[in-house]
Amino acid sequence: MKGCILYFSATGNTEYVARAIKDEFANNNIPCDMYEVSKNSGFEDKYDFYVFGAPIYAEMFPPFYTEWVKKHITKGNGRKCIVFSTQANTIACGPSTFAKELNKIGFEVVIEDNVLMPNNYYLVMFRKFTEQQVNDTLKKSKDLARTLVDRFIKHENQLINAKAREIWAKPVFKLFLLWSRKWAKKSLVADMGKCTRCGLCQKQCPVNNIKVNKDSITFFENCVSCQRCVHKCPANAFLYKDKVIDQYKLPKEVF
Fold it and tell me: So what's the pLDDT on residue 250?
């Protein structure tokens, strides 16, 4: 038996949980591959089970993630899977909403969960976690990964009841998508004196919303506000509302 963890991670949070899940399966002698969907190359649907994971954007998974999965895996064929989300809140209906779509194409979703992670969205809302809060949260998320894998192996179901939450979450999500399309264009500017023209932001943008020019960086109107560009820039060359950004970085020792 071999599984695959299909995930998207903008700043490292979801990758951290994906690695923790992979390690727990390995501890039980079950191999798992990891595949980050924005790489968009070389994927084959050849696995016995799947783990699906993505960050929460206004209660839901980002559309480019769910669309990628449905494009590359058209039939579940009864395979069991885990669906998890990462967010700075304790609950969101993204996993249960996406689980319904997976069940429709023949998957059997047996585990759904929300994994609390350090807030990486502090440019827009909520506070940045303290170092102690980060360390405590990472420990709890790793413990939760162990629990999820243990329940999956023991064939124990764990599903989220989010029917009531979905009633208001879906319209909120639609408004978020409208707002986010112009987020980078309205909020970001590049300090071209610091920019090295490495092109990393353009290459790693999951929705092709960035173009690096000789003397400027162009943002289009397809942004999802994942903020990968600002936090992954090796020169920290982006300004948010004309201010230098305090980049989100997980402790180096966690990877």
Answer: 92
Distance of alpha carbon 4 from alpha carbon 29, whole angstroms: 14
- Can you tell me the distance from the alpha carbon of 105 to that of 76, in angstroms, rounded to the nearest whole number? 6
- Residues making up the chain, counted from first to last: 255
Using a 10 angstrom Cβ sphere, with 0-12 exposed, 13-18 middle and 19 or more buried, the burial of residue 251 is exposed
Burial class (CB in 10 A: 0-12, 13-18, 19+), 60: buried
* 28: Cα within 13 Å, side-chain hemisphere: 19
- Parallel, antiparallel, or unpaired: how do β-strands 108-116 and 80-87 relate? parallel
Burial (CB < 10 A; 0-12, 13-18, 19+), residue 164, is exposed
Question: Are the C-beta atoms of residues 109 and 103 closer than 8 Å to each other?
Answer: yes
Q: Where are the domains of the chain?
A: 3-164, 182-244
- Confidence (pLDDT) at 34: 97
CATH classification number, 3-164, choose in 3.10.129.10, 3.40.50.2300, 3.40.50.360, 3.90.1150.10: 3.40.50.360
- For the chain, residues with pLDDT lower than 70 are 253-255
**Is it true that 3-164 and 182-244 share their CATH fold?**
no
The structure tokens 């399966």 sit at: 25
CATH top class, domain 182-244: alpha beta
Tens-digit pLDDT profile for residues 73-115: 999 999 999 999 999 988 899 999 999 999 999 999 999 999 9
